[in-house]
Amino acid sequence: MSILVGRETRLLVQGITGREGEFHARAMAEYGTRIVAGVTPGKGGQTALDGTVPVFDTVADAVRETGADTSCIFVPAAGAPDAIMEAASSGITTIFCITEGIPALDMIPAAEQARDVPMVVRIVGTNAAEAAELLEAAHFATAASLDEAAAKAVAAARGSVA
Asked: Residue 39: which of 50, 23, 53, 28 has the closest Cα?
């Protein structure tokens, strides 16, 4: 498997002040992941992880202030599609959504928002096959591996189909 997060990654955690977000962010930090920001609406100006991570109200604020390029999302299922859309519209290029139980149909608005942006989606998880079918039906390119995703992304950026 390819490595998606490395030494140069500038990670932000959406939902860092919640129980799951804090727990997993702390574990990631202990493992050596560089967490540059947290995002929890209404808690901007606070800090998390014993004062080591600034918390912002929006992903856009966090990206502007810290240069974050990757997001890991720990929010309830009802808010996950919006969190994904917020990260994507703020310039985040790698998004991990850890949330369980998101109904596949709730992801349609996220797919609709991204329709005009050349992208390839790599899906991993228990509902990956169902999610891939929905995305493909909406004319999104999907990929089973990072190599395939990279080839399709290059083709999409050039205006052709891989």
From this structure: 53
**End residue of a domain, out of 58, 82, 101:** 101
Question: Residue 7 belongs to a domain with what CATH number?
Answer: 3.40.50.720
pTM: 0.75
Tokens representing 7 are 């030494």
pLDDT of residue 152: 77
Give me the domain span that covers residue 109.
103-162
Tell me: do 16 and 88 sit in the same domain: yes
Of 101, 117, 133, the residue that ends a domain is: 101
How many residues in total does the chain contain? 162
- Beta strands (DSSP E) in the chain are 11-14, 35-39, 47-48, 53-56, 70-73, 94-97, 120-122, 141-143
- Which helix (H) or strand (E) segment holds residue 100: the answer is none
Q: Which residues contact 36 (CB under 8 A, 6 or more apart)?
A: 10, 11, 12, 53, 62, 66, 67, 68
Q: Tell me what pLDDT residue 48 has.
A: 98
